[in-house]
Specification:
- This is Putative auto-transporter adhesin head GIN domain-containing protein.
- The protein is mainly β.
- The chain has two domains: about 90 residues, Pectate Lyase C-like (3 Solenoid); about 120 residues, Pectate Lyase C-like.
- It is about 5% helix and about 55% strand.
- It contains two helices and 19 strands.
- Strand 5 and strand 6 form a beta hairpin.
- It starts with a helix and ends with a strand.
Length: about 250
């Protein structure tokens, strides 16, 4: 009897494409997707993202044809939202690559594990990066030339986040087990709220302000004229992080 129930469930699953967990990602294709202008990006599922500064707004999709069929995207009110409903329980599928072309990037909201990188330097006034999640691995590698970077990791986010380039004022709010590699990001002022078990590496020239909430350390390069270090113990957390000169 149990065998018949299993077979029946399998038939039901395989008869419904939108919930079929055994589908293959399909043949690899490349296609261009034209979009209205956007400056903000929201990512809600697994993708490999390459951001390219351009005069036009569009995506070049490189990946499985089946995933593209189940991918949703929109660029309303200046926000590009990306998602897909593809799943495969029998193997790890290859992440599709999205080349995102836009004139200026103002914010990234990342809700799912994946990779984000910039092929060339991105330019602008202020950029806000928000990373949300409780599971998965997040990888970011961006080269920027902005006046202000605001970088937030929320929840129990884990991963490695590399930022390089030039940014006079930088703010990091770190949670989870975030590891930040920003010693190649030239900043005059850096503000860090360090509530992560991971370590962070920065470069600062004038002013450094850091508050430790957990055991993650902060390594810094440069010779800031002003350094302020605070410790704030919340909910019996081990606020024992160290500020270390590299």
């Amino acid at each position: 009897m149990k065998i018949y129930i299993y077979i029946l469930c399998l038939i039901i699953l395989c008869s419904c494409n939108f919930i079929n967990p055994f589908r293959d990602e399909g043949d690899t294709i490349e296609t261009l997707i034209e979009l209205d202008r956007f400056t903000q990006v929201e990512i809600h599922n697994i993708f490999n993202i390459e951001i390219i500064e351009d005069t036009e707004s569009y995506i070049i999709y490189k990946g499985g044809e089946t995933i593209l069929e189940e991918m949703s995207y929109s660029s309303l009110s200046g926000i590009l939202r990306l998602d897909h409903s593809f799943m495969n329980w029998t193997k790890n599928f290859k992440m599709p690559t999205l080349e995102i072309h836009l004139s200026i990037l103002e914010s990234i909201d990342l809700y799912a594990s994946g990779n984000i990188s910039s092929l060339k330097q991105l330019n602008g006034d202020e950029i806000i990066i928000n990373i949300y999640g409780t599971t998965g691995t997040y990888e970011i590698n961006l080269n920027i030339n902005y006046n202000h970077l605001k970088f937030y990791t929320n929840g129990s986010v884990g991963g490695t986040f590399a930022v390089s380039g030039v940014c006079p004022t930088t703010t990091f709010t770190l949670n989870g087990s975030s590891n930040v590699q920003a010693s190649q990001l030239i900043s005059k002022e850096v503000y860090v709220a360090h509530n992560s078990l991971g370590n962070a590496h920065i470069y600062v020239e004038d002013k450094l302000n850091v508050t430790f909430y957990k055991s993650g350390d902060l390594y810094y390069k440069g010779n800031p004229k002003e350094i302020e270090v605070k410790y704030d113990q919340i909910n019996n957390q081990d606020a024992s992080g160290k500020l270390i000169k590299e």
